[in-house]
Design goal:
659 residues, mainly beta, Jelly Rolls, 8-stranded antiparallel β-sheet, 6 helices, globular
C-alpha cells in the first residue's frame, strides 16, 4: 500500500473484530459506514505562485554561503509553468547588469536550460533536450549542477535522462550579484509565470540515488523529509510552504525577500499505483489534476470483482507511468476495461505506437512490434474484431491475450505515446500476476505519515464494501482532524469546511435509517444529499436553529421539515437518529424516541431511496445550486447509513458505545 495512505482502526468494525459485541448484521446491511477506517491528511507541501504581470520575485543580496566560482554545486527545484513567454528566469545567482552573473536555471526556446558565466555576462548553456519542450501546467523537478572535476554543466528533469555539456575551461566565477527566484535582472524583466516549490542549493554534486530520492516519484521532499546524507553540504532549502511573505530557508539563514507580494498555491503531489507482485513495479499518475488525483479513483468496477476501486482516465492527458518493468519479459496480459467512448487507447509497453494496444474502428489492434494470440474477452475466445466490438459497448470486460516475449521498457497505461484513452482500467496483470499485478485499489492519496490532532483531512473513505470516498479538493476547506480521548473526529469550521462524494449509487428503498455521532456548536447541516437529475431535490439531517435535530426533504417543489423534541446543547456530544418506515419519519436522540413535530409540509416518511438518479452526498454542509451552504460548526465522529430501520436492540448496542 502506498505510504501516503493513512489507515486508522475502524470504530464500528472494531466492535465485531475485537468481540466487544456482535453487530455484524449492522455492518453487513450498512449502505455506508463513515467511521474513519481510512483518513488521509491534506498535503502540506505547498508552493509559491509567481505572477509575471505583477513583477513578482524573491531575492537576497550576495553572501559567501551562496557564492560559487569554480566549485561543485547543485540546484534542485520544482516548477510549474502557467505560461511561457520566451525566456523565463527560474533560479540563480547574479545579474547581467553590472557583469554580476554566476549561474541560472531558466526556460528558453521552450526548454529548460542551465548556464554558467565566467566573466559575469557571457554564458555557456546546456539545454534539457532529452526532456524536450516544457508544457504549461504540470509539475517538473529540475536538477542542475556544475562538476568542477569533470568540467561539465548538467541538467536533468523528472529524474530522467541527463543532458551534459563540457565547459571547455570556462568555469563559473564568483560575482557579487543577488541570489534570486523568479527573475534574474529587473532591467530585462524575464519574469517567471507559475508556481515554484522545494528548492535546494548544495555545494557538491548529488549522487544518482539522491536525485531519485529527492524526486520521490513526483512528490518531492520537504526539508524535514531529507535524510542526513542528503543534507551534507546543503547550504539552503526553501520549502515554499508560506502563505505569504518571505521564502524561509529551512536549512540555513538565507531567507529570500518577497518582492511584489508572491502568493501561495498547492505544491507537487503524485499518486502511486502499487504492484503487488514480488517485482514491485510501482507506477505513478501523470497528467491528473489535483482534483482528478482524488476523483479518478472510482468504485465503478466489474461485477466479477464487485469491490475495490478502478482508475478513470479522462482521454485528455491522463496516464499511469510504470517505466521499465522489472522481473522479465511480458508474455501474457490480463486486465479489466470499461471504455467510456468507442475506439480508445489502452496502453503501450515501450511508450510507442508500435508497442501499443488500442481499439481502432471497432477492432482490438496491436502495434507493429507486438505479436498477439489467444485473445479472450470475458474468458471466451474472440477474434480481434469481436474483441474490439465488445470493448466498444461501454461496459466492463475482462480482456486476456498472449504476446510473443517482449520487454516493457517504458510502460504507460492510458496512452499510446501520443493519444489518450477515455477509459476505466482495473486488475491489470502481466504473466498471470507473477511479473506485475496492479489492482488499482490504492485510492486517493495525500500527505504521507500518521494523521495527528490538528492535521487537515482531504479524504475519508467509508468502511463498507462500497468504499465511498468523501474528499475536498480545496485545501482551505478541508476539515480538521481532532483526537478526543482515544477516538478521532472531523472538526468543521462553520465557514467553508465540508467533504463530498459525488454520484453515489444509492438504494431505491423507501425505508432506511441514518445514525450520526456528533456535537454541534451552532445550527448546521450534518449530512446531506442532492439529486443530480432533479433540480433542487435534496435530503438533509441537521441541528436546526432551535437546537433540535431535524430532517428536511425537498422534492424540487415543496419542502417537508420534521423536528425532534430534545434540546441538543452546543458542544454536547449526542447520537442522533433519522429513520423512515416508508410512511413516516422517526427521530431519536441517544436512543430515546423523539416526539416528532411537522414544522412545514408533511411527515410522509420521504427517504434518500425515494430520490432517482445519482446522488451527491456532503458531510458538514448542504449542497446548493452553486457551492454549499448551512455549514456545520462542530465535530462528527461516525455516520451509519442503512437501507432498513435498525431494531431497538441494535440501537441499544450502538448507544452503549457512544456517549
Amino acid at each position: 500500500m502506498p505510504m501516503s495512505q493513512t489507515l486508522l482502526k475502524p470504530v464500528v468494525r472494531d466492535l465485531v473484530v475485537d468481540g466487544v459485541m456482535d453487530i455484524s448484521t449492522i455492518v453487513a446491511d450498512a449502505r455506508m459506514i463513515m467511521d474513519h477506517r481510512k483518513v488521509v491528511k491534506a498535503y502540506t507541501g505547498g508552493s509559491r505562485e509567481f505572477t509575471a504581470s505583477n513583477l513578482e520575485r524573491f531575492s537576497l543580496t550576495d553572501n559567501a554561503s551562496l557564492s560559487t566560482g569554480d566549485i561543485d554545486f547543485t540546484c534542485a527545484i520544482w516548477v510549474y509553468a502557467d505560461s511561457i513567454t520566451g525566456t523565463d528566469d527560474i533560479i540563480g545567482k547574479g545579474q547581467y547588469t553590472g557583469s554580476k552573473r554566476e549561474w541560472r536555471v531558466h526556460i528558453a526556446s521552450s526548454k529548460f536550460g542551465f548556464f554558467v558565466s565566467g566573466n559575469g555576462t557571457v554564458a555557456i548553456e546546456v539545454r534539457a533536450d532529452a526532456f524536450g519542450v516544457v508544457p504549461t501546467a504540470g509539475w517538473h523537478f529540475i536538477v542542475a549542477w556544475h562538476d568542477a572535476t569533470a568540467d561539465t554543466i548538467n541538467i536533468q528533469v523528472n529524474d530522467g535522462t541527463i543532458d551534459s555539456l563540457a565547459t571547455s575551461g570556462t568555469a563559473p566565477s564568483d560575482r557579487t550579484g543577488d541570489f534570486f527566484i523568479g527573475l534574474e535582472d529587473p532591467v530585462y524583466a524575464q519574469y517567471f509565470d507559475g508556481r515554484i516549490s522545494k528548492a535546494g542549493f548544495w555545494k557538491r554534486t548529488l549522487t544518482a540515488a539522491e536525485k531519485t530520492s529527492l524526486y520521490a516519484k513526483g512528490n518531492g521532499k520537504t526539508h524535514a523529509e531529507l535524510t542526513a546524507a542528503e543534507k551534507v553540504s546543503l547550504i539552503s532549502y526553501w520549502d515554499h510552504n508560506e502563505a505569504s511573505g518571505n521564502a524561509i530557508d529551512s536549512e540555513g539563514s538565507n531567507d529570500l525577500t518577497d518582492n511584489a507580494t508572491v502568493t501561495a498555491n498547492n505544491g507537487p503531489r503524485t499518486s502511486s499505483v502499487e504492484d503487488s507482485s514480488a517485482n514491485a513495479n510501482h507506477a505513478t499518475l501523470s497528467g491528473f489534476s489535483d482534483a482528478q488525483e482524488i476523483e479518478a479513483w472510482s468504485s465503478d468496477v466489474s461485477s466479477d470483482i464487485e469491490t475495490g476501486l478502478s482508475l478513470k482516465y479522462d482521454g485528455t492527458n491522463d496516464e499511469v507511468d510504470v517505466g521499465s518493468v522489472a522481473g522479465g519479459n511480458v508474455t501474457s496480459v490480463d486486465f479489466y476495461v470499461k471504455s467510456l467512448v468507442d475506439n480508445q487507447v489502452l496502453f503501450t509497453l515501450q511508450n510507442s505506437t508500435a508497442t501499443a494496444v488500442t481499439v481502432v474502428a471497432g477492432t482490438l489492434t496491436f502495434g507493429g512490434s507486438l505479436v498477439a494470440s489467444n485473445i479472450k474477452v470475458d474468458t471466451v475466445s474472440k477474434t480481434d474484431a469481436e474483441a474490439g466490438a465488445l470493448i466498444n459497448d461501454n461496459a466492463w470486460h475482462r480482456v486476456q491475450f498472449d504476446l510473443a516475449s517482449i520487454t516493457a521498457s517504458n510502460m504507460k497505461m492510458g496512452t499510446d505515446s501520443s493519444a489518450f484513452g477515455n477509459i476505466h482500467l482495473d486488475a491489470f496483470k502481466f504473466n498471470a500476476g507473477v511479473l506485475a499485478d496492479w489492482s488499482f485499489n490504492d485510492g486517493p492519496q495525500g500527505q504521507g505519515g500518521t494523521i495527528v490532532d490538528g492535521d487537515r483531512v482531504v479524504i475519508v473513505e467509508t468502511a463498507d464494501g462500497n468504499r465511498w470516498t468523501f474528499s475536498q479538493t480545496t485545501p482551505a476547506s478541508c476539515p480538521t482532524w481532532r483526537v478526543i480521548g482515544t477516538r478521532g473526529q472531523l472538526e468543521f469550521d462553520g465557514v467553508d469546511d465540508y467533504l463530498q462524494y459525488p454520484a453515489a449509487d444509492i438504494s431505491t428503498s423507501a425505508v432506511g435509517e441514518c445514525i450520526i455521532v456528533f456535537h454541534a456548536d451552532t445550527s448546521g447541516t450534518l449530512f446531506s444529499m442532492t439529486d443530480a437529475a432533479v433540480v433542487n431535490q435534496r435530503w438533509q439531517v441537521i441541528r436546526d436553529t432551535s437546537s433540535l435535530i431535524s430532517l428536511e426533504y425537498h422534492n424540487g417543489v415543496t419542502q417537508d421539515n420534521i423536528d425532534g423534541s430534545t434540546t441538543v446543547s452546543a458542544g454536547q456530544e449526542r447520537m442522533g437518529g433519522w429513520g423512515s418506515s416508508g410512511t413516516a419519519t422517526s427521530l431519536t436522540v441517544d436512543n430515546n424516541d423523539e416526539t416528532e413535530a411537522v414544522r412545514s409540509g408533511a411527515n410522509n416518511g420521504n427517504w434518500i431511496g425515494d430520490v432517482t438518479g445519482p446522488d451527491n452526498f456532503t458531510i458538514g454542509a448542504q449542497e446548493i445550486a452553486v457551492g454549499v451552504g448551512e455549514e456545520l460548526s462542530g465535530n462528527i465522529e461516525m455516520i451509519l447509513l442503512m437501507d432498513r430501520e435498525l431494531t431497538a436492540a441494535e440501537r441499544t448496542l450502538l448507544a452503549s458505545v457512544y456517549p
